[in-house]
Amino acid sequence: MNLIIKKFFLYFMSILFLITLSSCLDTTYERLIHDYNFYEITYVHIGDIIEIDLEELAHTYDFDDIQYENYIDSRYDSAPKIVINRLNQPIAVEEGITSLDVILYKGSREIARIYLGQYIISKNDALTDDFIGLNDNNFVYYLSEFPNGNYYLSGDINMYSKRNDELIPFSNFSGVLINPYQYKISYLNREDHFFTGFFKQLDKARIDGLIFDEVDYTLTINNSNQLTVVGILAGEAKDSLITNVSVEGSIKSTQLVKYVGGIVGYSENSIFRGVSFKGEMDCYAYSMGGIIGDSMVTNVRILYSMIDDNIYPGAKPLHVIENGYVIANLTNHSGIEYIAPAVYTRVRDRTRISNFYFDGLLNDSNIIDNSYFYTNDQQIYFSLENHSNLYTTLRSPDELLEIPIYITHEKLISGDHLAYLNGFIYETGEYPVLERWVKP
Questions:
Q1: Burial class (CB in 10 A: 0-12, 13-18, 19+), 15
Q2: Which of 302, 275, 283 is nearest to 196 (CA)?
Q3: Which of 12-21, 88-97, 292-301, 334-343 has the lowest mean pLDDT?
Q4: What is the SS3 assignment for the chain?
């Protein structure tokens, strides 16, 4: 009798164990649902409430509570760029790039994690009464003394008369500078021993509509033990949103410089839309690009799934450059020859470029056997996911190479619309030009 009871007890405990284990596995599985269907890259302004489609979430999941997670890169940031108000709404509070997740709960149990995507947060650039108009007489004073202000160009600026002013280049800028009336900044001709550009550094800045023409940078003797970072707009740009900026002119160096870019020398977590460079770069540099000399995107996560032991991307590549062109001869005499029509980057998998064309030469050659993105790994030049709608007059020795799309110079200036190349105006006999004032 005791044996029968013992067998029954063991059988009962086994069933109970299996039920408990099954319940745990189900709970684990439910807690580890990862949903990327809502993922987008979104532009917002400081103070904006980030709208969540709760109706669609409720249609997909049975939940009764919602919480948010805003990720930061602890190496650079000390506080989140998105906070939650007392109504449990996410609000953008800090410039830069960040990501946001939604965690859904049923009771105390987490049932799903929704990856909403990455948010590009910038200052509001609507021209209001608090904006100060900059002209040829006052821009040095305001940009040097109040680098956090809100400004717009109220007249053309002639840099030739200011070229000996020690306050130029401006050391840093963290405000808003827009050009709604299409005035020009002309005759920018500077030499400097460190970061070099109209600004040395942009940090959480909003720049829109600047037009630089008659630019002539010549970098000669460097008396510092630090290499120069060169860009016409700025030497460095961090957590900044730069749109509708065009440059015409040349950058030359007889010394070794670190990074050279037509718009920005070194970019970190910054976004460029509607940008162009037309002219010449003839430099000795570690790396150079028609728009950006060197680019880094740090705000990226990788997710490891305990369910299927697979690794999933926590974030999609960012549009570091969206809508742009370079018409220039780019020459790098350093022997390293990290040179790119658009942007050099060591993080190709995190960087995306779309709607872009190039016409010119690379080191006096019309052959391209490497990508619009450069990495230190010579075997991974191309990534189909990170390129779209790229045209170039450079030929490739690889006949099977589909990106970028080869186009003749004659076809480029024919006035015919290029397939899928959006955001450009076409005229017969002219290069396609960007539509101005395209806002994020």
A1: exposed
A2: 283
A3: 12-21
A4: CHHHHHHHHHHHHHHHHHHHHHHHHHHHHHHCCEECCCCEEEEEECCCECCCCHHHHHHHCCCCEEEEEEECCCCCCCCCCEEECCCCCEEECCCEEEEEEEEEEECCEEEEEEEEEEEEEECCCCCCCCCEEECCCCHHHHHHHCCCCEEEECCCEECHHHCCCCCCCECCECCEEECCCCCCEECCCCCCCCCECCEEEEECCEEECCEEEEEEEEECCCCCCCCCEEECCEEEEECCEEEEEEEEEEEEEEEEEEEEECCEEEEECCEEEEEEEEEEEEEEEEEEECCEEEEECCCCCEEECCCCCCEEECCCCEEEEEEEEEEEEEEECCCCCEEECCEEECCHHHEEEEEEEEEEEECCECECCCCCCCCCCCCCCCCHHHEEEEEECCECCCCCCCCCEECCHHHHCCCCCCCCCCCEECCCCCCCEECCCCCC
What does the longest C-alpha to C-alpha distance in the chain come to?
Answer: 108
Q: Which of 37-46, 232-241, 390-399 has the lowest mean pLDDT?
A: 390-399
Cβ-proximal residues to 114 (8 Å cutoff; 6+ apart), any chain: 35, 38, 57, 101, 102, 103, 104
CB 248 within 8 A of CB 218: no
Name the residue with tokens 């970098």.
219
Q: Quote the CA–CA distance of 99 and 314 in Å, as a whole number.
A: 9
User: For the whole model, what pTM was predicted?
Assistant: 0.85
> 18: buried, middle or exposed (CB in 10 Å: 19+, 13-18, 0-12)?
exposed
Which tens digit of pLDDT belongs to each residue from 246-268?
999 999 988 888 999 999 999 99
Residue of 243, 339, 237 lying closest to 293 (CA atoms):
339
- What's the pLDDT tens digit per position in 347-382? 766 778 889 999 999 988 887 765 565 544 444 444
Q: How many residues does the chain have?
A: 440
Return the ∠ at Cα 382 (arms to 291 and 115), rounded to 5°: 85
Percent of the chain with pLDDT over 90: 47
In SS3 terms, 389-406 reads as EEEECCECCCCCCCCCEE
Which pLDDT score is estimated for 304?
A: 46
